[in-house]
Predict the structure.
Amino acid sequence: MLPDSLLRRLRHARHVAVFTGAGMSAESGIPTFRDRFEGLWAKYDPMDVANPWAFRANPQFVWDWHVHLADKVRKAAPNAGHKAVARLQEAVPRVTVITQNVDNLHQEAGSRDVLELHGNLFRLKPFVDEDEVFGSGDPVVCHVCDGYARADARDPYAAREDVNAISVREGPVPRCPGCGALLRPAVVWFGEMLDPAVLGAAVDAADDCDVLLCVGSSLEVEPAASLPRRALHRGALVIEVNPAPTGLSDRAAATLVGGAAVQLPKLLRETWGIED
């Protein structure tokens, strides 16, 4: 049970930011993006597969690795922690979910305004090989996938819906129906920068929130890991939910030791009287 002083601050919060990491989805049985798989994929280090250089060298191999991950994610369902985050919207005027996960489980549980720092496994975007595209003349922006394309390689009848209809499934690496560019999952690979717009919105939320719940993150990956510290520095109430201590534990107002599927529903009951 949290002290009464913290419960009062929670109940009067106007904006709660919920920052979630891999531990949240691990409780649904989803491997983290850094975990090795079993079976045929066990010998491959994810850092050697999920990067743009690997895709440039062998796009089919990298696509197949992501298909395997997507198949595992499809078998998972939002756990009680995801559902508690969604139900928090009933108690607080504004809730912003900031996640490092790529599995779409927050949205499936009913959360709105989800900022996906590391992208989404089930969305696709074009792979832009700058040497190839810019070495063949002046490229134009594809009206379907927003990637760069050669002007003479576009299909004017293709539409954005055609890309949205393509899923991460077994088979050849898909191509954009508009320009023919190879498509890839819209996740942030190792060695890539976060989307500036998404990161900017997350920073704005950390700067505006009354309360930040840091859930299931080891806080080892920057710049995402700096968001709870940013909120803490400006005086927001920061509460950590994690089975193991992190670099934030000694500075947070409170640490709820355990998994999100247990601790978050309990927090909602004790603070706002929201039952499972």
